[in-house]
Design a protein that fits this description.
Number of domains: 2
Number of helices: 12
Structural class: alpha/beta
Strand content: 15-25%
CATH topology of the largest domain: TIM Barrel
Largest sheet: 10 strands, mixed
Helix content: 25-40%
Length: 383
C-alpha cells in the first residue's frame, strides 16, 4: 500500500551520535537510550532495533505499553527500565519479565514485594527520590523507612538503582535549583548507606544535565534528545561549544520526513486558497497539494509559515493546514508533477529543513513536535 509519507532513520547518523556520547560519558557510564513518546516520534520498534545494532543494551521507557514493545522487538535481550506509569494489574508481567521499574510510593513497594513472593522472582526496583521537581518520588523524611523496608525484604526486592530527575537542567537560570537537587540526592544516598543498604547504580542525569552538570553523570545517564541528533536547548549547545576547541556541532539528525506531491493546479490572482480567507493569491500562482496535515502531526500553527523542499526549491506553505492536506506555492518550479518528492524534515540537494526550524516557527519544543508525529506513518532504517 502506498502511504502518504515515510519517516527515515539514518543509521550512520545515529552511530556517529553514539560515538560522540560514549566519548562524552566515558566507558564506565551506562548509556540508557530513552525511547518514551514513540522514541521521540522516531518509532520505538525501528529505533530500538537500530540502537541495539549499535551496541545499546539499556532502554528507558515511560510505561508498560512501551516496555512491551521494546521487550518484544529485542526478544528479552536488553535491560528495560520503566520510569513512570505501571498499573497494578501490569506489575506481575513487569516482575515476571525482569523489567526494572521506578518506585516512588510505599504502596507500589508493598505490592511489588507481594507479587515477587508469589512468583519467587525478585522485583527489580529503582527508588526515586523527590529532590525538588515536585512530581514523583519519596521525600527525605520517608527514606529511612524505605531503606529499612528494603533491608527487611532483601530476598524479594532487588535494589537496582537510586534516582531522581532534575527540574530544568537545560537552562542556567535553574542553576541554584539543580545544585540544591544534587545536594538533596546525595543526602538521600547517605540515608541508605547509614541503613547499610546501597543501590547497585546511581542515576540522575538526562541529556541536558549530563552536559551542564557533569558531576550528575554517576553510573548511568538517561540520554533522550541528544541521541536523536538534537540539543535540549540552544543554551546547552552553546555551553558544549564553549568547552571544546573545534566549534562544530558534533550531532547528526537521525530523522527525515518525506511525502510527495498529490496534485498541482493553477490559481488566479485574487482567489483564496484553502479554508477561510487566511491566504489570497496576489498574482496568478501554481500550487501543489501534499497529503499531510495536523492528523499526522504536522502542526496547524505552521499555516502560512512553514516550508517544504520540492525539486531543490524551498516552497512556502500557503493557506490553512487541514487535517490531511496542506498546500504549497510552487510557482517558481517549471517542471513539477504528481509524485515528486516533498521533504518536511531533512535534506534535498544543498537545502535542509531542521526540526528546530519547526520549533522556532510554531513555538513548540523539539520534543513536543517530534512526539506528535503520527504512529501510523511507516518508519524505515536507512544507511
Amino acid at each position: 500500500m502506498h502511504r502518504n509519507s515515510i519517516i527515515e532513520l539514518n543509521q550512520n547518523a545515529y552511530k556517529s551520535n553514539v560515538i560522540f556520547l560514549r566519548k562524552l560519558l566515558g566507558k564506565k557510564v551506562i548509556l540508557s537510550s530513552v525511547v518514551k513518546g514513540n522514541a521521540y516520534g522516531h518509532g520505538i520498534k525501528e529505533f530500538v532495533t537500530m540502537a541495539f545494532n549499535n551496541g545499546i543494551t539499556h532502554f528507558s521507557v515511560f510505561d508498560v505499553e512501551e516496555a512491551k514493545i521494546v521487550n518484544e522487538t529485542l526478544s528479552n535481550s536488553a535491560t528495560i527500565m520503566i520510569m513512570g506509569f505501571v498499573g497494578n494489574e501490569d506489575l506481575q508481567w513487569v516482575i515476571q519479565n525482569n523489567i526494572e521499574f521506578y518506585v516512588f510510593e510505599r504502596y507500589r513497594l508493598a505490592l511489588a514485594t507481594k507479587i515477587a513472593k508469589k512468583l519467587k522472582i525478585k522485583a527489580r526496583v529503582h527508588i526515586e527520590i523527590e529532590t525538588g521537581m515536585n512530581r514523583t518520588g519519596f521525600t527525605k523524611k520517608e527514606l529511612p523507612g524505605v531503606a529499612q523496608y528494603l533491608v527487611k525484604e532483601v530476598q524479594h526486592i532487588d535494589f537496582i538503582g537510586l534516582c531522581t530527575h532534575y527540574a530544568g537542567a537545560e537552562s542556567i537560570s535553574n542553576y541554584y535549583r539543580i545544585e540544591s537537587q544534587i545536594k538533596l540526592f546525595n543526602e538521600g544516598l547517605n540515608i541508605f548507606k547509614t541503613n547499610k543498604i546501597e543501590p547497585r547504580i546511581k542515576h540522575t542525569a538526562c541529556s541536558a544535565a549530563s552536559l551542564m552538570f557533569p558531576e550528575t553523570q554517576m553510573d548511568l545517564v538517561r540520554i533522550g534528545i541528544l541521541q536523536y541528533g538534537l540539543w535540549p536547548s540552544q543554551e546547552v549547545l552553546v555551553t558544549y561549544l564553549n568547552s571544546t576547541k573545534k566549534k562544530i556541532d558534533p550531532l547528526q539528525r537521525v530523522i527525515s520526513w518525506k511525502s510527495e506531491i498529490m496534485n498541482v493546479k493553477n490559481v488566479k490572482s485574487g482567489e483564496f486558497i484553502g479554508y477561510g480567507t487566511s491566504y489570497m493569491a496576489k498574482n496568478n500562482m501554481k500550487i501543489a497539494t501534499i497529503p499531510l496535515g495536523y492528523s499526522h502531526g504536522y502542526s496547524r500553527s505552521l499555516s502560512n509559515r512553514g516550508q517544504v523542499l520540492v525539486s531543490g526549491y524551498r516552497c512556502s506553505i500557503i493557506g490553512t493546514i487541514n487535517m490531511n492536506m496542506l498546500s504549497i506555492d510552487v510557482s517558481e518550479i517549471e517542471h513539477i508533477k504528481k509524485g515528486d518528492e516533498a521533504v518536511m524534515i531533512g535534506n534535498q540537494g544543498d537545502l535542509a529543513i531542521t526540526v528546530s526550524s519547526f520549533s522556532e516557527l510554531n513555538n513548540l519544543l523539539n520534543y513536543e513536535f517530534l512526539s506528535r508525529i503520527s504512529k501510523s506513518i511507516p518508519r524505515k532504517i536507512i544507511e
